[in-house]
Fold:
Amino acid sequence: MRRWGRFVYRHRKAVLAASLVCFVLSIIGVATGGQPINASNYDVESVRAANLEGAQLPSTTGSSFTLILTSAQSAFGQPAFESAVNAAVAPLHSDSRVSALLTPFTVSAAQVPLMVSTDKRSVLVQVGLKIDFAQARAQYGEIRGEVHSSSLNITATGDVPLAYDFDTYLASDLRRSEVVSLPLALILLVIVFGTGAAALLCLGVGVFAVLGGVGAALALAHAIDVSTYAVNVVTLVGLGIAIDYSLFIVTRFREELASGHTVEDALGTTMATAGRAIMFSGLTVAIGLSGLLFYTGTALVSMGVAGAIVVAVSVLYAVTLLPAMLAVLGARINSIRVPILQPKPFGEGLWHRLATWVMRRPWTVLIPTIAILLIAGSPFLDLQLANSDVNQLPTSAEARVGADLLQAQFPQVGQNTIAVVVDYQHGGPMTPTNIAASYQLAQRLAALKGVTGIRSYVTVQPGLALTSYQTLYTQPKSSLPSAVQAVLTTLNGSSIAVLDVATPYFVTSDAAHNLVRDIRAVDSVPGATVQVTGDTAFDIDLVNYMIDHTPLAIAFVVITTLIVLTVLLRSVVLPFKAVLMNALSLSAAFGALVWIFDQGHLSNILGFTAGPLDPTIPVLLFCVVFGLSMDYEVFLLTRMQEAWVRTGDNRTAVADGLERSGRLVTGAAAIMACVFLAFALASVVTIKSIGVGMAVAVVVDATLVRALVVPAVMRLLGDANWWAPHWLHRREPDRQEIAPAA
Structure:
């Protein structure tokens, strides 16, 4: 790394040119990137059943949405109401993207009650589209804009409007967070450095890194499914990480210049110390994010890949673009000074006195601090998990307004539907034997508590006996009643029959969960595989999937991090201590997450609807925060290690290391917390909760944990902190590399 620093100094123009090429490639990646989507294909029963439906039922593969048209002056059955509805949707008839338009005035009499509200003031219009879901989500805004009326209130809902609203709000949240976080980060950088030049340089590197990460993530979307949340995660992690890395490198460079070294020597030493530290730090953050790769088939995989990419880009710019700029600026890095913000000389600061004070009374500090952190984490014991739904959107979002209206005014349509997919191994669903099996299954399902109705080809005409259905289906399909034909088309495939079980239980309620479990416990069907899908089944399966895969992900992250830290610090004890410190920070963050978002405290202030956490949020928070917390641990312990190698005294090493890095760690944490809290202003609850959780974790980690718990524990461990087997000391740090700055 020392040689690399000198190389960059001597070839700074070439390195800057290469960085500019990377910047241009990033812009191209953003401009030509693929479309992010939230695809799920993990191996659970509900997904397998949904895949069967998608493969065999043509009606499930098209895109569609629902319009709810409401009048305050007229009601269904009045000519004025019918005229207003027809006029509002008339432009859709000439839109080449629309494949079908069903209104209460064009469907069969049997379907009309399903499309009229209980107060007769609202009706549904089903809009079918010829384009696939990805195109529909991108073009929905244009299609929706064609529908308007001066006398009707029009609301849209369904999967396409939901996806469109998520895209719109996520993009808006991203712009808002950038507008808020960048000026705040610049102000805090000026406070930390006391100079405008250094602050602007660090912020510039952060912008370069985020643009590179976003460009790479969108380019990756051409090859794999990239979650719509991935871009927000890239910005969230990348901006904070890149600024932090720049902060530590620029600070060390200024220290070396202040010691009287030439620019070349200062850059070499900076790369050998701070540069080496950020290489390992980036590795630990990437290790944390790699834990997301264990959740195959979920959106977390693309978030982990995109997050790891932006960390790699941040490290790349920190060891190329940044040192090249420092080589060009030299002593001018200290220009645009703010005199009142200049740091005190080493040995006279607050952090040295704090470390000394803590080490005089380690138990007095350690016990109450750990108790506070554990109490802060205690709400996590009451964690409730549920798959995210339309409630993730703000109450003003049209898709959410429409969903609420559908639930309230159209109970037969808005109620929860649990799909039971019967896959026959011998013959199709229309054989007499399989008709009998479906009929008997429907009878058993209808007897379960909470089932209000079953829609299927063996219940389409209530009152018919089994033999009547067997006789009915000996006729050609074209001669069957239209209602029966519709059910056969939408619910029967070449080898499957779907039984739609209706229940008034809310999707994520315990009652709905219990009903799905009861359905899955029903006796098996001879010669067939029975699988349950639908929103409630997805909810249960996703939570279980996350719980089942989390132990392995945590074990991988922890063990790999221990190995990397052992190599970096040449200590067996310190890596285990670092992991335990991270656990304390995570405890407080998880507790805050449940207390705020699950239990609903601060919901009025932060503007969201309280409810169970999406099961991906705690996992994402662990993987990101574990890496970020280890980031600060690496910088703190490497400075302590330098002092230990130089002095051989544990107390001096702790005080020296905390003094030299404490102010920076706190400043870096403040910057990162501002970036994260800017995302707490998001409209989408998932992004809001991630921002708040990360901000809490970073603040707690940089204050209570690093300032109080770490020095107290290291004082109690004494020289044992630095113990390691002889083979680990084969290559001791170069004393020239860790020569103290004056």
In short: Residues 732-742 have pLDDT under 50 and may be disordered. The domain at 1-32+194-342 is CATH 1.20.1640.10 (Multidrug efflux transporter AcrB transmembrane fold). The two ends are 21 Å apart (CA to CA). Residues 159-193 form the longest helix (35 residues).
